[in-house]
Amino acid sequence: MNKLDRRMLLAGMGAAALVATSGAGLALHQARAQGAPRKIVPNLRSALIVVDVQNCFTPGGSLAVKQGDEIVPLINRISKGFTNVVITQDWHTPGHVSFASTHGKKPFEQVDLPYGKQTLWPDHCVQGTEGAALHKDLSIAHAQLVIRKGHNKNVDSYSAFLEADRKTPTGLAGYLKARNINRVFVCGLATDFCVAWTALDARKAAFEAYVIEDACRGIDLMGSLGRAWADMKKAGVHRIQSTDIATA
Ligand code: VGL
Ligand code: ZN
Fold first, then answer.
1. Structural domain boundaries of the chain?
2. What CA–CA distance (Å, rounded) separates 224 from 219?
3. pLDDT at 247
4. Helical H runs in 135-243?
5. CATH code, 46-244
6. 193 Cβ below 6 A of ligand 1
């Protein structure tokens, strides 16, 4: 085969490949136009984890996340597509180690604790108070487990899986595994703290993890939101929107 023939052959293959690609593209386009479902369909091995949708984190609360209440109707709707739903509550003692007031410091400063750096927060989600209650419009009657975290006075817990000492389990991984769940979908407050830490720890515990971006709101303390998304991407957390999920 001479040089020219070879070039023509390659060009011909290229054209054939192009046709094949656009053919497939057309088929996909037609499938979409026909309304073929391309959504994620949660199954019995999937669980929705609704993180910290509590009065303290919604407008009017002591650690209010901007527009934190807007996600409530969205979460109610998404939850209908899940057989398995877990709800978390931040659940601190009075005088908790994560409170600025405990250290005579201002909120959003940091302190060094035996387990590492701790960001200090306004007093929030004190056990049994109205602020720690779930938002009144959150309506997920079929949720099966409410897991309370950060209840140890000397250890915070952003994650629903592991406390901030990075070694005390909450029991959530064992619960999910005992029920044969392998995929978790995380939503709630706040994207860059409790949602991100929960999704990252889900990956460490070998769950497939999805964060439903529009069903979360972030605090964004000195770039924490961008960092959280970068960390989650690196860990293989899928970033999706509520419209990507099929509702029942
Ligand atoms: C949270 C700060 C302190 C959260 C909880 O739910 O994201 N953030 N405690
Ligand atoms: Zn907290």
1. 1-36, 46-244
2. 8
3. 76
4. 172-178, 196-204, 224-234
5. 3.40.50.850
6. yes
